[in-house]
Design brief:
Residues 75-219 form the HD domain. With 405 residues, the chain is mainly alpha-helical. It contains 18 helices and no strands.
């Protein structure tokens, strides 16, 4: 996909007409005075960074459990990489960098310990009570569960940041109110009763670049971590023509290069190609749509920031490689089974005896609740755990804890 470099916003300070405007934000659920030194989206980003939920990301699994080594990505380092790519895309497209960065920084708040394994296990535990969805949990965290401010629960983000958090992957329902990817999680529906996030429309372009930045980041760093772990080899990467071509390019330019440097040269080229592909697609779609406001982006009939057909096929091939060689590797599956057991055991134990939860808040708020409400509180408590805390809690309460090493 070609890029029109004449329209790029690198260092220009220009703002496109379709950019979200922090000075015309739809505001916050609880009205607050404006800041003398920061825009509304800057304030959102700063609040996100100072949350407990953000700090907990450093001890939550991305793919490899923390005991595997200090150099593998965690949810925190993944989030930082997503934010960097999102900000680069936002600058190139002349949209609000702070909103794009904020959505990127908050997008994984709702993830459980042990990555998608923990999420699947908790979803199964909560299935009789509405299930578990990490995106809905992110919304619960920033609107209810973070307790830092005197005047409100959550962190009172702007409408635009909340919209981006909930809809960065596209509309959640169609014009008839039917879920586009299955039933809309109840916590999202409940929140929209008091602050309508317009679930049938696309999110801002800032949220869209955060979403595609997530794909770019994990496709790249999971290959990097896979090579580091030994689950992937350079020979395996040859199965993906896109990666094979970049390896040939690096070998031609640097005939003798140590493996770590060789891997990094591949990764940096992969990110560059994918970022440039998204910019080219977005420019073409913007030229066709000719949006005059952020509202025009929301009302469009398709996403603006996405891969070209060719890069989307490469994305599918990379994901297929990662699933077959890493995510479904027998050793990873063994560790995943142990992690799922930890989550399942803890859920059952806390439901049976809420006093086991090590917090006066959780114990006091669960007393007297019905079973479904109690289950949701237990789910909140478990989802907020880091990997290390979950393992320690299990060891404290059970005679045997699965070995995740």
């Amino acid at each position: 996909m070609s890029i029109d470099t004449r329209t790029l916003g690198f260092g220009s300070g220009e703002r496109a007409p379709y950019a979200a405007d922090p000075w015309s934000s739809r505001g916050r659920l609880v009205p607050e005075g404006s800041s003398l030194t920061r825009s509304e989206f800057q304030r959102d980003r700063d609040r996100i960074v100072h949350t407990t939920a953000f700090r907990r990301l450093k001890h939550k699994t991305q793919v490899f459990i923390g005991v595997d080594g200090d150099h593998y990505r965690t949810r925190l380092t993944h989030t930082i990489e997503v934010a960097q790519i999102a900000r680069a895309l936002a600058r190139a497209l002349k949209i609000d960098e702070d909103l794009a960065e904020g959505v990127a920084l908050v997008h994984d708040f709702g993830h459980t310990p042990f990555g998608h394994t923990g999420e699947d296990a908790l979803h199964e535990c909560l299935a009789p009570y509405g299930g578990f969805d990490h995106n809905a949990q992110s919304l619960r965290i920033v609107t209810k569960l973070e307790r830092r401010y005197a005047e409100f629960d959550g962190i009172n983000l702007t409408w635009e940041s909340l919209e981006g958090l909930v809809k960065h992957n596209g509309p959640l329902m169609d014009a008839n109110g039917v879920g586009t990817r299955g039933p809309v999680p109840q916590p999202i529906l409940d929140y929209c009763e008091i602050n309508d996030l317009e679930l049938a429309s696309f999110a801002s372009l800032e949220a869209q670049v955060a979403a595609i930045a997530d794909d770019i980041a994990y496709n790249t760093h999971d290959i990097d971590d896979g090579l580091r772990s030994g689950y992937l080899t350079f020979e395996m990467l040859e199965d993906v023509p896109f990666l094979s071509g970049m390896m040939a390019e690096v070998r031609a330019k640097y005939p003798v290069l140590e493996p770590a440097r060789f891997a990094n040269e591949i990764m940096r080229r992969q990110i560059t190609h994918m970022v440039e592909d998204v910019i080219g697609v977005a420019q073409a779609r913007l030229d066709a749509l000719r949006p005059e406001s952020a509202g025009d982006i929301r009302a469009a009939d398709r996403a603006i920031a996405t891969f070209s057909d060719e890069m989307a096929e490469t994305d599918r091939q990379i994901k297929k490689l990662l699933f077959s060689r890493i995510y479904r590797h027998p050793e990873i599956m063994r560790i995943r089974a142990g992690a799922a057991q930890i989550v399942t055991d803890l859920f059952a134990a806390y439901m049976a005896d809420p006093s086991q939860m090590q917090s006066h808040y959780w114990v006091s708020h669960i007393a007297g609740l019905g079973e479904a409400a109690r289950a949701r509180h237990v789910g909140d408590y478990l989802a907020g755990m880091t990997d290390t805390y979950a393992v320690k809690a299990h060891r404290r309460m059970f005679d045997h804890t699965p070995d995740l090493g």
